[in-house]
Specification:
The protein is mainly β. Helices cover about 10% and strands about 50% of the residues. It is built from 3 helices and 26 strands. It has helices at about 35, 115-120, 275-285; strands at about 10-15, 20, 25-35, 45-55, 65-70, 70-80, 85, 90-95, 100-105, 110-115, 125-135, 145-150, 155-160, 165-170, 170-175, 175, 185-195, 200, 210-215, 215-220, 225, 230-235, 240-245, 250-255, 265, 270. The strands form 6 sheets. Strands 1-22-19-24-17-14-13 form a 7-stranded antiparallel β-sheet, with no helix packed on it. Strand 25 and strand 26 (about 270) form a beta hairpin. The longest helix is centred in the C-terminal third of the chain and has 12 residues, at about 275-285. The protein is globular. It starts with 9 loop residues before the first strand and ends in a 7-residue tail after the last helix. Bound molecules: manganese (II) ion. Manganese (II) ion (MN) binds next to strand 5 and strand 10. The site of manganese (II) ion (MN) has 5 residues, from strand 5 and strand 10.
């Protein structure tokens, strides 16, 4: 740690035990959502951990059938299995292990998220996460956009002594930049650490910092233990998150500048005001969320 850096400290651990089925995806752990945490995790809104599970072969492709979104972005990271995303404009595509789809719903999409026909035929293990990222008010009504980030496009930094790896999906880590184009400043890092490995993650003072542990066991800032499938919400104050893996661990490190804007969401819509939520329901009733 350099002289000017200050360690962020653990604010609290977010730990939900309840699993859901979302459409045909099961189990789904709601790691956190803005319904519970309001703007504390801003610019991040929600994180779901789907699986790990095993799909039986030979069933019709299941998943989440047609539904709308407006006002934010969905970031889908696949660890195992294969998904097919499709919307009414023909946008979307296949997302396999290591791939990331960064979908900017903005003004609106209606889409479905299903296991791919190929994966549904063979079955097998599946695991993925979906992160919702808020958009600043000025960008909420932009045209929808997809960024398909294949595994080969995402830089993967191997830590010395086989201590692990950091995949930079968005933002940067130690001078390496990720491919996702974001609307506000953020880092989205997919990290693996071997038992005993240490890594530090730098932010601006005042930034949000979240550490979600998919598997393993971590120590944060040398004192606090984080168990698997729990998320650490770090203090806004401070410029560095220091992590030590007590076991081989897989984690997401999410940091970024909070938006500092009003938040009003309902179901698949996240806007700034209640009137904008009502407008979104009016627009979907009138067919105005369909991109043609
Ligand atoms: Mn969706």
């Amino acid at each position: 740690m350099s002289k000017s850096s200050v360690l962020k400290t653990l604010a609290f651990v977010q730990h939900n035990d309840t699993r859901f089925a979302v459409g045909d995806f099961s189990p789904v752990l709601s790691v956190f959502s803005y319904h519970e945490l309001s703007t504390t995790p801003s610019p991040f809104l929600l994180l779901d951990h789907i699986g790990p599970g095993r799909l039986l072969p030979g069933r019709p492709p299941g998943g989440v059938h047609e539904h709308p979104h407006r006002g934010f972005e969905t970031v889908t990271i696949v660890y195992a299995g294969e998904l097919e995303h499709r919307d009414s404009s023909g946008g979307g595509g296949l997302i396999g292990p290591g791939d990331v789809q960064w979908m900017t719903a903005a003004h609106g999409v209606i889409h479905r998220e299903l296991f791919s026909p190929g994966f549904a035929a063979t079955g097998g293990p599946f695991e993925m996460v979906q992160l919702w990222v808020n958009l600043p008010a000025a960008d909420k009504m932009n045209p929808a956009r997809y960024q398909s980030l294949s595994a080969t496009q995402i830089p993967c930094i191997t830590l010395p002594d086989d201590a692990g790896q950091v995949r930079v999906i968005a933002g940067h880590w130690n001078g390496t930049h990720g491919p996702a184009d974001t609307h506000t400043r953020m880092n989205v890092l997919d990290v693996r650490l071997a038992a005993g490995a240490q890594a530090t993650f730098t932010t601006e003072d005042g930034d949000t910092a979240l550490v979600y542990l998919l598997a393993g066991r971590l120590r944060l800032s040398e004192v606090d233990v984080l168990e698997e499938q729990a998320m650490a919400v770090m203090s806004a104050h401070g410029t560095e998150v220091a992590i030590t893996a007590e076991e081989g661990s897989r984690l997401l490190v999410l940091t970024g500048a909070p938006l500092g804007e009003p938040l009003n969401g309902h179901g698949p819509f996240v806007m700034n005001t209640y009137d904008e939520i009502l407008q979104a329901y009016e627009d979907i009733k009138a067919g105005r969320l369909i991109i043609l």
